[in-house]
Design brief:
Blueprint lengths: L11 H5 L4 H26 L14 H10 L5 E5 L3 H6 L4 H8 L23 E5 L5 H15 L5 E6 L6 H13 L3 E7 L2 E2 L2 E2 L22 E4 L3 H16 L5 E6 L19 H6 L3 H11 L4 H24 L23
Parallel strand pairs: 1-2, 1-3, 3-4, 4-8, 7-8
Antiparallel strand pairs: 5-6
Helix pairs in contact: 2-3, 2-10, 2-11, 3-8, 5-11, 6-7
Length: about 350
Amino acid sequence: MLDKATAKPATKTALNDDIGEATRLELYRSQVNIRECEQRAYDLFLQNLVKGTSHLSLGQEAIAAGFATAMKKGDLSFCTYRGHAHTLARGVPFEKVLGELMQRDNGLMRGKGGSMHLMSPEHGVMGSYAIIGAHLPIACGAAWRAQYKGHGDVSVCFFGDGTTNIGAFHEALNFAAIWKLPVVFVCENNFYMEYTPIGDVTAVPNPAGDRASAYGLEKIVIDGNDADVVYRTAQKAFEKARSGGGPSLIECLTYRHSGHSRADPAKYRPEGELEKWKERDPIKIYRERLKHFGIGDDVIAGIDAEVKRTVDEATEACKAAPNPPMDILTTDVYADGGFAWRN
């Protein structure tokens, strides 16, 4: 790699200046946190300890890690049903996430939300939404509140490539652009909208990026498997939003290693496609990145071991945790905490 100013090979130190070792280790740990916890969720599902279905982010960890690391305390995350990664990346403990997936009383929602409805306002996680595109207008509302009150926080809305063909996507983009809202829209383009290749049903090659110009926004399409690229792009978008420059639409190219959900064997994918993408595994990429900047194998192995140990401890705590008590079954249905029908 060349230094643009001198046209000479850049030193490792120069390359590392804009991010720094501490942040890179944070980015790596976040990705490993997600990978280990998601893999454990997969294992627990096979043991019949996670009921129903779940949507994993195995292979997509760099997006959640990159954006969360660039976010400030008070910034808000809005996720889809594939929201475990973004919840973990904002600092929610393993036990709270796994407990919710296992429908235990120690879970985030005391076992009442499950895999697709994680929420932790204290960590800035404003919910996972199972209805496609439903959270984009909600993220606009949160951003409008921040703009009106001058609070300075940014709303970050994550969604899949299939959402770009939903009306709420276009309505939210138009609204955010007109009002210059401090919101960042992040498309996690893993090339499949459930079982259908996004390219088969979309008129443009980049379902998010190629539509940005319709709302006066810059086309931004990045490598979503490189946490450094994601982190730098997020920083720029957040700076723009906080300074009154309005929204950004960022398309992150990535690939899920598993099917759409636990019910999906993903047999529709062409032979060899998964193996090719696994060569671009975000954690594999980042391990090599750390070594490139002189971070030792012992440091990397130490993080790996610590995360695995913490996930193991969280798993055992969740297995031992009780099921939710029956007396909370009808609570939290209405704003007053009750369940009686309102006319």
